Amino acid sequence: MDTMRDRFAPVVTRLLDEDPRVAVLLAEIGKDAFGEAIARHPDRVVNVGIREQLLVGAAAGMALTGLRPVVHTFASFLVERPFEQVKLDLGHQDTGAVLVSAAASFDWPAGGFTHMAPGDVALLDTLDGWTVHVPGHPDEAETLLRRAVAAGDDKVYVRLSVQSNRQGAALDGERFLTVREGRSGVVVAVGPVLDAVLAATEGLDTTVLYATTVRPFDAAGLRRATEAAGTDVVLVEPYLAGTSVAAVNDALADVPHRVLGLGVGRRELRRYGTFEEHAAAHGLDAHGLRERIGRFAGTPRRESARA
């Protein structure tokens, strides 16, 4: 099976052919995949070199001229390094772009911590007006990429990963999908952690929701699920643990509830290893999730802190 990033360049190349507003900005990373697009659209495919602040600034400039820029590099170089430009050139100037990242939280451990970005979604949460898509399969990535480019002049972040679920789902880019129904709590699985969550909750009487669009957060979908399954909520995200806990609390603010936020820990893991080993070390494999979800589900409400 191809990866989400394998799907990225062919999809965006077709969008360049279909829509004269679309432009692509690169910072060396990924340029080889756009050779055909550069030949056909040399004025709308720009490689700025290893200058990530310029990458975002140039995208904002193109947006001001009426173009729809698609901006691509590793997440740590797309959100963290040029964050001032994301905040000011896009946010303050109220211009739109589609930021498409690769490497996710730890997809390329051999690159070291400079190439890891578990805090990217949390960082964007400090800004207003961003839509955030976290596909869990290449087919979903294609759907959400097309939706992002077509989204007028909105600010959209699409988080690609080599980690993938075995099957893609039919998405509308807005609502959570109900994958399994139960009566004892709700587990929200974000993007590529769905397969691990399903394995971890096998035999548990829990509802499993699948989220690939996390901003805006589908508060109405979560509330509907808790009406039948109860208000114990476990949130499993493939980035910084607890990133969306506040969104869950806001969705359930008027009812007693508990929430457990699982994801990537803050402690830096300094051995390279593989992304599977990093996932296991952060408790995001099926075994680690089963242990923590089971412990949370088995804790009486009176002994746990209420949200």
From TrEMBL:
<dbReference type="InterPro" id="IPR051157">
    <property type="entry name" value="PDH/Transketolase"/>
</dbReference>
<dbReference type="InterPro" id="IPR009014">
    <property type="entry name" value="Transketo_C/PFOR_II"/>
</dbReference>
<feature type="domain" description="Transketolase-like pyrimidine-binding">
    <location>
        <begin position="2"/>
        <end position="167"/>
    </location>
</feature>
<dbReference type="InterPro" id="IPR005475">
    <property type="entry name" value="Transketolase-like_Pyr-bd"/>
</dbReference>
<dbReference type="Pfam" id="PF02779">
    <property type="entry name" value="Transket_pyr"/>
</dbReference>
<protein>
    <submittedName>
        <fullName>Transketolase</fullName>
    </submittedName>
</protein>
<dbReference type="InterPro" id="IPR029061">
    <property type="entry name" value="THDP-binding"/>
</dbReference>
